[in-house]
Amino acid sequence: MASTLTIDKAAPRRNPGYGSMSRDRAWALKWSYFFLTIFAIFSLVPPLYMLVTSLKSSQEISAATNPWWVFHPTLSNYIQLLTSNQFLTFFFNSAMVSIFVVTITMLISVPAAFALARMRFWGSATLATGVFLTYLIPDTLLFIPLFKMFATFGDWSGIQLINRWYVLLIIYPTLTVPFCTWIMIGYFASIPKELDEAAIIDGASWFQTLTRIFIPVALPGIIAATIFAFTVSWAQFLYPLVFTTSVDQLVLPVGIITTLIKGDVFNWGQIMTGALLGAAPPLIIYAFLMDYYIAGLTAGATKG
Amino acid sequence: MVDIPYQPGRVAAAPARRRRGGLATMMKRKSMVAFLMTLPLIVLIGVLVVYPAFYAVHLATLNKSMQRFVGLANFQFLLKRDTFWLVVQQSCIFAITAVVFKALLGFIVAHFVHNVPAKGQRKWRGMLLVPWVIPPAMSTLAWLWLFDPSYSAFNYTLGLFGAGPIPWTGDAAWARFSVILVNIWYGAPFFMIMYLAALKSVPDQLYEAASIDGANWWQKLWYVTLPMMRNIIAITTLFSLIVTFANFDIVRILTAGGPLDHTHIFATWAFKIGIEGSDIPLGASVSLFMVPILAVAAIFILRDVHKRGNES
């Protein structure tokens, strides 16, 4: 009966509260909780298992004890990784790449989205569609020609970009800019036109209209786009795998996979610790800014 | 809401009729400003997306040392190889099975979350979206460890019930199952979130009206929920089809295409040939085989997005 009381409070309109009906609802609610628990376990097993393994010593991992439980928790894996220069280099490279890519992405996509949403010009509608189409072109289609392009460019100009972490600053925007532009077009288009008309009448330039009115009003959209750009550049795996090979140029995902796996020897304690530390920044952002994260996720298909 | 079509210049035109020259330069400046604002975007897309896409076609017509034009010889060579047909088969199995199960699971879970009182929804949604937030390369490592041949935690658990050890990544059929399972785990939360947003946008009155007409839950689902969600289901499914078909991370880390090339999909095989095997033209040819399916999905998405734009 306690459960029926809670739905009464939460969704008063949807619960008529008559005898058989509320009994049905109570049953439906119990089943919902039951299945949600199963799905939540399914979702959380891999990250939790990462955590469990990261707290084990290699002796405990190779002993045939219950793998789901830590009997002698130790932080040695964390200490080893966080004091290893190699791992810190990966972390530093990943952080640099992500921060720069987010900045570049926002500098390109916010003005472009403003122009496409508000300043109708020749070909602007086609360009907006083109931006969306670009978003649908996957990285797995472009990595071979891009690799060859940069190799040819290096031979031709003498500027060697392959196997430098900053080559990723040029390539990642192809993944982030189209989506961010697309969702920013949606956010900008939802701002009432009276606002910018008033600004223009008051003598503001287009640039001032963008910085003084559109960016503050569309701030939730900008935060959502920033989070998207950050998670994409932090998680990207294919491009760094193709473009960087030297140990000091690797970003976190590739670094963990290429250096911690040595031949057939898997140091699982350290691999799981590295994976957990690599997953931490997006998870922390998600924990604090979940609503913006979800807004960005759903905006791609619901806006525009 | 009445949408007044935006007429640039209309507001300014009335007082400024006398000095038409000033208005003309302002209009000229406006399109100039707009062009400058979109220029970085145009350059980026042109140089790093459109050009490489066509360059891939050019590369595919060269021989291995990239000095001689060989026409369609690369494609002919691929069509004669058994591994290629294995990759085509596995790519289709992988993408279709994974997308269908992701959509079904997402739909079911979204309904359960929607059933729960509004206060608790945030907590459940937060937990269920975690797989989507973790970088796939990192979470696939956790799965690889869960599937480990000698220390698999799943096999340990199955062993408690007397079930034999399963060769998760060692046997071709099980390896195919495993990569699909991991992909479903990773992608289902995306569907869940999209469907949840769509479910919340269905007006309650429709369900009330259906209840008064005596509809059971199945009829409500079939005649109210599904038609209202049709567009979002189509867009999400097509979008996920593109992403899943072009997947790389999960297969690469979990099985690297093995055992005996049975889990290779286009992207991982193109990487193996083009980058690891340094046969760039052949690798480019392999990845180009993705284009027809991606193009069909993209056309349908574009149609649906436009339809959606016109409705609102």
UniProtKB/TrEMBL annotation, chain A:
GO biological process: transmembrane transport
Gene3D superfamilies according to UniProt: MetI-like
Keywords tagged on the record: Cell membrane, Membrane, Transmembrane, Transmembrane helix, Transport
Annotated Pfam families: BPD_transp_1
Transmembrane intervals: 31-52, 90-114, 121-145, 165-189, 210-231, 273-295
Membrane-related topology note: Multi-pass membrane protein
Source organism: Rhodopseudomonas palustris
Family affiliation: Belongs to the binding-protein-dependent transport system permease family.
Family annotation (SUPFAM superfamilies): MetI-like (SSF161098)
Principal cellular location given in the protein's record: membrane
GO CC field: plasma membrane
Location within or outside the cell: Cell membrane
Residue span, ABC transmembrane type-1 domain: 91-289
Name of the molecule in the record: Carbohydrate ABC transporter permease
PANTHER family (alphabetical): INNER MEMBRANE ABC TRANSPORTER PERMEASE PROTEIN YCJP (PTHR32243:SF18), MALTOSE TRANSPORT SYSTEM PERMEASE-RELATED (PTHR32243)
Automatic annotation (TrEMBL), chain B:
Membrane-crossing residue ranges in chain numbering: 33-57, 93-114, 126-146, 174-197, 232-254, 280-302
Compartments (UniProt record): Cell membrane
One Pfam family named in its UniProt record: BPD_transp_1
Highest taxon above the source species: Bacteria
Single biological process term from Gene Ontology: transmembrane transport
Main localization, broad class: membrane
Protein name: Sugar ABC transporter permease
Chain ranges of the ABC transmembrane type-1 domain: 88-303
GO CC list: plasma membrane
Bilayer topology term: Multi-pass membrane protein
Family: Belongs to the binding-protein-dependent transport system permease family.
Record key words, sorted: Cell membrane, Membrane, Transmembrane, Transmembrane helix, Transport
